[in-house]
Amino acid sequence: MPGPTAAAVQPKVDFGEPTTPYAAYAGIDTLHSLLQPRSKEPAENSFIVATQVMELLFGLLRHEWTAAQQAMRVDDLPAATAALRRGLGVQDVLVSSWDLLATMTPVEFSAFRPYLGEASGFQSYTYLHLEFLLGNKSERLLKLYAGSPRIHAELSETLNSPSLYDDAEGVLRRAGAEDWVSVYSDPAHRELALLGELLLDVAERVTRWRQRHLIAVKRAMGAKPGTGGSSGISWLSKAAEQDVFPEIWAARNVL
Ligand code: HEM
User: Which atom of ligand 1 is nearest to the CA of 229?
Assistant: First the structure.
């Protein structure tokens, strides 16, 4: 005999306030007000939303990677692993966010490109934090924020702090492991080998994001120079080819 089913109660619709608790909680009005296209080209909307979504996700990823670092510093592998795994979810969404721009034609992009002026994702300080956390440290880029003391100070701190990889190496060192080859070869270091695999999951997704960016750029503007002043795809392809966490990849050459 099926048991009694609870009555389906309708959600509340009368709050008697100018906004709903949903809109108030998540700042929805502010959020939508941030979509301000400068041209009449409809494809600019997708470009702005893709940029804003990715910026938010860069910030979330920075948060997860920093949490993983804190955990690694006290050898709390379960907490480090959990944070890196949450980060993988963020990275997957970052990679698929490129779908928002997949259909943009060069004619559409050229229609709003002049309105960007010299603006380029290259100037994203949130992305720069991620690059520094990955160990790609370039002091020269701090110049971008010479006029903004708060952002400059935060970036300097990330630049001068250990990278994700430095913290993983610290875990290895304290566990008495010499390098990644010994970690993968010795069953006693199984937990560390799993950490190595997780870092490669991170690395793969970083490269996937860079590759999809490269393809999106190639589709939208071919080999033209970028708005940020670089040569465009020839400059971007260098970063896409570069291994993330090269030491863990190199261990594959001898294992
Ligand atoms: C189809 C649209 C896009 C085009 C044509 C494009 C083009 C470029 C180009 C040419 C560069 C090299 C720097 C320069 O000279 O400007 C660059 C860098 C960059 N772009 Fe994009 N971009 C696009 C979309 C995006 C989006 C949606 C984001 C998300 C925030 C983004 C983030 C970045 C970042 C972070 C860099 C620096 C990469 C690095 O340092 O290796 N781009 N982009």
Answer: 15
Helices (H), the chain: 21-26, 28-33, 43-73, 77-96, 106-112, 125-133, 149-159, 164-174, 180-185, 190-221, 233-241, 246-251
Residue 11 lies in a domain: no
Q: In this structure, is residue 226 part of a structural domain?
A: yes
pTM for the full model?
A: 0.96
Q: What is the pLDDT of residues 54-90, one digit of tens each?
A: 999 999 999 999 999 999 999 999 999 999 999 999 9
For the chain, the domain total comes to 1
How many angstroms does the Cα of residue 225 sit away from the middle of ligand 1? 11
Domain assignment present for residue 19? The answer is no
Closest CA to 135 of 103, 158, 155, 151: 158
What residues does ligand 1 touch, defined as CB less than 6 Å away? Answer: 50-51, 54-55, 101, 120-122, 124, 127, 213, 216-217, 220-221, 226-230, 232, 235-236, 239
Which of 122, 134, 238 to probe ligand 1 with, by most ligand atoms within 8 A of CB?
A: 122
The residue whose CA is least distant from atom 30 of ligand 1 is: 51
CA distance 121 to 51: 8
Q: Residue 16 domain-assigned?
A: no
Averaged pLDDT of the chain: 96
Assign residue 143 the CATH number of its domain.
1.20.58.480
**CA 220/CA 18 separation, integer angstroms:** 42
106: domain range? 39-251
Closest residue by Cα to residue 106 from 238, 232, 250, 249: 232
* Cβ neighbours, 10 Å, residue 61: 27
